[in-house]
Specification:
Glucose Oxidase, domain 1; ligase; CarbamoylP_synth_ssu; binds glutamine; alpha/beta; 2 domains; pyrimidine biosynthesis
Amino acid sequence: MTATIDPLTGRGRATLVLEDGTAFAGLAYGAIGETFGEAVFSTGMTGYQETLTDPSYHRQVVVMTAPHVGNTGVNDEDPESKRIWVSGYVVRDPALRPSNWRSQRSLEDELAEQGVVGICDIDTRALTRHLRESGAMRVGIFSRTDASADALAQRVREQPEMAGSELASEVSTDEAYVVPAQGEKRFTVAAVDLGIKAMTPHRMAERGIEVHVLPADCTFEQIQAVHPDGVFFSNGPGDPSTAPQVTVLQQVLEAGIPFFGICFGNQLLGRALGFGTYKLKYGHRGINQPVLDRTTNKVEVTAHNHGFAVDAPRDGEPVQAPAGEQFGRVRVSHIGLNDNVVEGLECLDIPAFSVQYHPEAAAGPHDAAYLFDRFVELMTSQKESN
Ligand SMILES: NC(=O)CC[C@H](N)C(=O)O
């Protein structure tokens, strides 16, 4: 019988168990207790604060491939939302103390304070390789348990799967709010919050856009009431095939209002146009994913966080939108160069486009920030033609 406290670190023992029964022994990190979610890995070496507070990670347990996490502590400036959303956090080697001029407290204290159960001191590379081979799957982290791995795996298998989960309504704002334009106001945008990250309205505000952030269950009439020059659908957690917002988006497209979508918003544009979405084996999460923009033929390095993707013709040739003639032709405008996954859609006959990745990316890279300028151009030309 091993001691329940590790004598070197003073940490309690903890166990990570995957739904296929694979178990990793580690040490407690963050809050003590147990948690469940979908195990996914992120290859980002910086920006853990932005990752943790991204609402798209709701109900996911994030495994960090970067071996040393917490070095720069936590500050009040970088969060993408008001709280940590990951349901569990897996690191190899937590920093003993933060060291950064912007740090206000330690990452571990923040995790503990927000009740986020984590585990450290496990071989995160072995775990990541397992997820790459077997696919993302449900996981549990348990500190202070005497139960057998088999019994714990059984409890993991009783949890809901990510496929089929509607989660945007759980993370969206309850009340509408406005992010004012910086400098002179040029446009009004209605941004539907499916799990929006703070940096997204910020990137729009920098371009003179007044952003009206609306709850996920808003109606087309509520969008119209804002008198928007453009409509935006944000990133968000869950399976896009369960999202009820597709009908509202179709109304936006039929009204000819310029539309821009990011991540979940891209998947919903795909579905509104009549394409399917499917679950990737283990998804894309990190900040160095190469994407080809077919409009300019430039390759950009981009931030990703998605487990699902749009199923549309990948050769870049325009096709008629399967949902109906009123949506005109559409083409896959951006393609992932690691695995040929659809990373962007562009409508050719109505003013709408979207990307599967994160042009607002904080902590960077910023190669894709031009997409906010494309949204501005789309709204400008629509205004001029009216
Ligand atoms: N960041 C996001 O918007 C993610 C979208 C969706 N939940 C996915 O996993 O693919």
